[in-house]
Amino acid sequence: DIQMTQSPSTLSASVGDRVTITCRASQRISSWLAWFQQKPGKAPKLLLYKASNLQSGIPSRFSGSGSETEFTLTISSLQPDDFATYYCQQYNSDPWTFGQGTKVEIK
Amino acid sequence: EVRLVGSGGGLAQPGGSLRLSCAASGFAFSSFAMAWVRQAPGKGLEWVSSTSGSGSSTSYADSVEGRFIISRDNSKNALYLQMSNLRPEDTAIYYCAKVSSVLPTESYFDNWGQGTLVTVSS
């Protein structure tokens, strides 16, 4: 199975900050990576797919980069609505696996 | 607008069974693979099972293989998860998710239902 490791596990930031979350895959996955945002009590929401493609309706302050084993999610200017937990997920091969999550907290 | 409404969760005893359902609307259901993803209380996301658009191809996580069966009824726009021989570690919110293509391979989860809670306890 492909292991996905996110860092950091928790991130404290202020509104307006630039935030970067890293996701590493234990095997090469090309660009078959998605990023999700989840708020407490809610279902996950797709932010980006194929590493860098923004899902329809997602603000342009979210961006993604990387390939093969190292990926990043960047929020260019953190907004109050962005405080949430973020997950990466590989869909290169079965079983599909998620990172453990990164919680973005208010500093 | 894509809409996925899960139901069927509840309390089950260890060794018991439950059947989850997911009613889909707002898209051509048979043209897309579907999946179940779960989240134990306070934990991360775990893929459980996927099925192709026709239902002819299915796959399972090792943790549920042989105990859970995914199926779909394209005439009713419905996805199911039959869960048997339940264990306490199956306690989780179960989300149904639409996949971005007719086959699960190299496809991502683009829409999620609201989730249904399954609790396995005596």
Topology:
The complex is a heterodimer of chains A (107) and B (122).
Chain A: E1 4-7, E2 10-13, E3 19-25, E4 33-38, E5 45-49, E6 53-54, E7 62-67, E8 70-75, E9 85-90, E10 97-98, E11 102-106
Parallel strand pairs in A: 2-11
Antiparallel strand pairs in A: 1-3, 3-8, 4-5, 4-9, 5-6, 7-8, 9-10, 9-11
Chain B: E1 3-7, E2 10-12, E3 18-25, E4 34-39, E5 45-51, E6 58-60, E7 68-73, E8 78-83, E9 92-99, E10 109-112, E11 116-120
Parallel strand pairs in B: 2-11
Antiparallel strand pairs in B: 1-3, 3-8, 4-5, 4-9, 5-6, 7-8, 9-10, 9-11
Q: Can you characterise this structure?
A:
The complex is a heterodimer of chains A (107) and B (122). Chain A has 107 residues and is an all-beta fold. Chain A has no helices and eleven strands. In chain A, the strands form two sheets. In chain A, strands 2, 4, 5, 6, 9, 10 and 11 form a seven-stranded mixed sheet that branches. In chain A, strands 1-3-8-7 form a four-stranded antiparallel sheet, with no helix packed on it. In chain A, a hairpin with a 2-residue loop joins strand 7 and strand 8. The radius of gyration of chain A is 13 Å and the shape is globular. Chain A starts with a strand and ends with a strand. The mean pLDDT of chain A is 97. Chain B is mainly β. In chain B, the strands form two sheets. In chain B, strands 2, 4, 5, 6, 9, 10 and 11 form a seven-stranded mixed sheet that branches. In chain B, strand 7 and strand 8 form a beta hairpin. Chain B is globular and about 40 Å long. Chain B starts with a strand and ends with a strand. At the A-B interface, strand 4, strand 5 and strand 10 of A face strand 5 and strand 10 of B.
